Amino acid sequence: MIELLDSIPPGVIYLVVGLIIGLESVGIPLPGEIMLVSAGVAASQGIVNPIALGVVAASGAIIGDSIGYAIGKRYGRTLLGWLGRKLPKHFGPKPVRQAERMFDRWGAWAVFGGRFVALLRILAGPLAGILGMKYRKFLIANATGGIAWAGAVTTLAYVFGLVAGQWFHRFSWIALLVTVVIGWLIVRVVRRRAAKADEAEELAAAEDSDAKVP
């Protein structure tokens, strides 16, 4: 990979890195992190400028996530409606409402931390749009996460070379496993609270109906 990058003009490298990271953030499964690590190693050999590389990577992440958010907000409800008809147990109104409550509470951290986790980099933007996260809140989490991720990956790849790439690969999948476990626990808690809230609403509605009966 480094030999290949050495034969490509720096401007093209910046363009390719930004494009791949951007498309990955939109929701297309591309190796954005691997590409950034390789470019970071190339920066350590003077092929590209590490600061410019970090700026391009962060910009691609932020813009791509924003596009993914817009797509999710525009078309996500249609997709959820179709899935709700096919799989009502998992995508019906009640589970979607529970997911919205969970994302409203933890969504900013999911967007920020998802930048460092395999697969979540692809899903965070579209999911935030689908579940109606406010764009201002999303943008803050998206921008800080994108800058932190791009800066960390570029710096570590620049300092430690290919070893950093192997470390990031392992960390991403470990982080994914931890995130899945934590997410499962949060879903359990949210579902219990949502069920209690629904029961309370039904009880209040029943009492109100009884009170109106002469």
Automatic annotation (TrEMBL):
Stretches assigned to the VTT domain: 30-156
TM spans (from-to): 12-30, 51-72, 106-131, 138-161, 167-187
UniProt cross-references to Pfam families, sorted A to Z: VTT_dom
High-level lineage: Bacteria, Bacillati, Actinomycetota, Actinomycetes, Pseudonocardiales
GO cellular component: plasma membrane
InterPro entries (alphabetical): DedA-like, VTT_dom
Major localization class: membrane
Subcellular localization: Cell membrane
Organism: Saccharopolyspora hirsuta
UniProt family annotation: Belongs to the DedA family.
Membrane topology designation: Multi-pass membrane protein
The protein, known as: DedA family protein
Record key words, sorted: Cell membrane, Membrane, Transmembrane, Transmembrane helix
